[in-house]
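[Automated response] Your request has been received and processed.

Submitted sequence:
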Amino acid sequence: MIDKLQQVEERFEKVNELLCLSETVSDQNKYASLMREMKNLTPIVETFRLYKKAVSDGEAAKEMLDDHPDKEMKEMLEEEVRECKEKAAELTEQLKVLLLPKDPNDDKNVIIEIRAGAGGEEAALFANSLYRMYSMYSESRGWRSEVLSLNDTGLGGIKEISFMVKGDGAYSRFKFESGVHRVQRVPETESGGRIHTSTVTVAVLPEAEEVDIAIDPGDLQIDTFRSSGAGGQHVNKTESAIRITHLPTGTVVECQDERSQHKNKDRAMMILRSRLLEAERERQTSEIADERRSQVGTGDRSERIRTYNFPQGRVSDHRIGLTLYKIEAIMNGDIDEIVDALITADTAEKLKTSEE
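Generated structure:
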């Protein structure tokens, strides 16, 4: 591990030098790339330097301990040696975590797709609740969200919605939300007070740039049609809505929110790129042996990940056995405790795997 840390420190110094060169500053793409690398290397190097100082201070104290005749001074030096050893051990564990392979998508913007599942209008209403929860969470972190495509029920529910969240580290915080979310509550229309169970599917996709995945234009079937809506000003008189079908995979994306056909096409292509990139990531993940998968789940959309039980006021994440009795706060976007617990479980599993 020390050899690898020394290589990281050498690279850190090299990147620092490159950032100071005028030709790097003038090349915006190269400069931005090096700044991202510097941001990733900095916490590792800072922690490694603290580790080296703890080891050095401990060795210096031990040398003085061996040579010092004074009993009281010896006790002080013994305490310093013990503290330095504990500090070095603590920093070693931090470094193990920092050296884990970083998900290359963690810093990306994210596209979230929410679809009502079993449960009819009640499922659609809960899909709207989840969209509100994620929107409020994004706002609390200073991120911007933007609806890309929306298909509502006209009764306050959402059949399907795609929206983008833009912000540093958005994917790293949202990526464990993929899967089936189950809600148990008494619908407002239920006169008998019976609890209904409904489901909503969430897919979380890192935003894919054109350089991330190449799409052959010949593989696309692009159709235009008139937007459908609740009527009045919401219905487009022209065929501005776009449907793009990726023929090799059968992936279909529709966008009809914008009045401009060009804007709808751009948005549809952005969603298509992200879906294809995610499909490729899932294919690669499925090739990994089961025991090496994260215990917080594979991100499979068919996997039931969480239950929201309104009568009991609880939210349970089934992947890590976490239950919280603060459903109102969670539905208002206070999901950091859940996200942090999922990240901690994922990190622990990766550490366990790396040590095997």
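Summary generated for your ticket: The first helix runs from residue 2 to 20. The mean pLDDT is 82.
If you did not submit this request, please reply to this message.
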